[in-house]
TrEMBL record:
Organism, scientific name: Pontibacter saemangeumensis
Record's protein name: Class I SAM-dependent methyltransferase
Source taxonomy: Bacteria, Pseudomonadati, Bacteroidota, Cytophagia, Cytophagales
InterPro entries, sorted: Methyltranfer_dom, SAM-binding_MTase, SAM-dependent_MTases_sf
GO molecular function, one term: methyltransferase activity
GO term, biological process aspect, one: methylation
Length: 197
């Protein structure tokens, strides 16, 4: 849809995902506070990486569940190790596919991707898989670096505009539910399923 797909960040980028400045640079806790979570929420962190978001959200859904969905084996192993170290029983590590998130249909209150959507090799197929996995009133949240900001020193292929994200998601059965601009360098774009699909 007029966009070049970025290359996936490799497991060598794990230290960047866990950098000490990330909480402040991205205001991650504010993003989590705005995810509309309750203690029973069932959530999927798609492209969970090292679990930077997964394990923070696990504390917010003690009676629910969070699926840490990851494609790369080294990250899957790291996620399992961290889950065990933290003793979090509501975290389920899932080996995802290039076209599927491998969680049950109609099970999720929220699916989210943090700087991941622009790297999906098969975005249309993944959006269809997410659509199936969401409950009828489930939401999909994308946090993406703002391509509209020329001063943001992130590679162009790793940034997205609101217009491009909305165009792609609307073509795959989603409509924009909530857009917020409170994050320093990322878009906060929450989508819901459309009834027509």
């Amino acid at each position: 849809m007029g966009r070049e797909i970025a290359r996936v960040i490799g497991t060598g980028g794990g230290s960047w995902l866990d950098r000490s400045t990330r909480l402040e640079e991205e205001n991650s806790l504010r993003a989590i506070d705005n995810m509309l979570l309750n203690p029973q929420s069932v959530v999927a962190d798609i492209g969970a990486g090292t679990g930077f978001y997964t394990f923070k959200i696990a504390e917010k859904v003690p009676k629910g569940k969070i699926y840490a969905v990851e494609l790369q084996d080294a990250f899957v192993s790291e996620l399992k190790k961290r889950r065990q170290e933290l003793g979090l029983r509501n975290v389920e590590v899932v080996k995802g596919g290039e076209k599927n998130i491998n969680v049950p249909d109609a099970s999720l209150d929220l699916a989210f991707m943090v700087d991941v959507y622009h790297e999906l090799e098969y975005p249309q197929e993944m959006l269809q898989a997410i659509y199936r996995a969401l409950k009828p009133d489930g939401k999909l949240l994308l946090l993406e670096y703002r391509a509209e900001d020329p001063n943001l020193s992130i590679r162009e292929l790793h940034k997205m505009t609101v217009e491009q994200v909305t165009k792609e998601l609307e073509a795959n059965g989603f409509k924009l539910f909530r857009r917020e601009d409170f994050l320093p360098i990322q878009h906060f774009l929450m989508f819901e399923k459309t009834e027509e699909k």
